[in-house]
Design brief:
single chain, 160 residues, alpha/beta, six-stranded mixed β-sheet, 30% strand
Length: 160
């Protein structure tokens, strides 16, 4: 019986999972980072490791990438991403990082092996720097943060 259960569990699908943080400044601009290994910008964050919670992953990634040790707030976006860039589907989660003040912004130290730069971006700038799906996800995250709610997306689009 136990071996049948183990075999069943081994056949269950696995999903990629990423977690990131939405930081804003006093002008409601979003903090984006420019990875050294990608041709586009993104929110600070990364892969949720095996056995790691998404919240812990987001905090770890912010610490590793930006040198900031800040608590993250509530979940603002869950976005299911279909196969495409990767051969499997995945879930991307965004947590509210809150508004960074001047002292926190001045304390940013980039992990230069992974990040080339960072910038505060308004919606127009973010749309230019992000792939379409990510631009939709970030815009939805900003709206969800402002409304005090969490949204579910599929490929960056809300469910009708």
């Amino acid at each position: 019986m136990e071996s049948e259960r183990a075999e069943y569990i081994a056949r269950l699908p696995r999903k990629r999972m990423g977690a990131g943080a939405l930081f804003v400044d006093e002008l409601s601009r979003v903090l984006l980072v420019e990875p050294t290994y990608k041709a586009y910008w993104e929110l600070p964050g990364g892969v949720v490791e095996d056995g790691e919670s998404p919240g812990t992953a987001a905090v770890r990634e912010v610490r590793e990438e930006l040198g900031l040790d800040v608590p993250l707030g509530r979940l603002v976006v869950v976005d299911w991403v279909p196969p495409g860039l990767y051969p499997d589907d995945g879930l991307m989660l965004i947590f509210d990082g809150g508004e960074l003040d001047l002292a926190q912004t001045s304390a940013i130290v980039l992990q230069t092996e992974e990040l080339r730069s960072w910038a505060w971006c308004d919606e127009t700038e973010a749309t230019k720097r992000l792939p379409d799906m990510m631009a939709r996800r970030v815009a939805a995250a900003v709206q969800a943060r402002d409304a005090g709610r969490t949204v579910y997306l599929e490929n960056g689009l809300g469910m009708a």
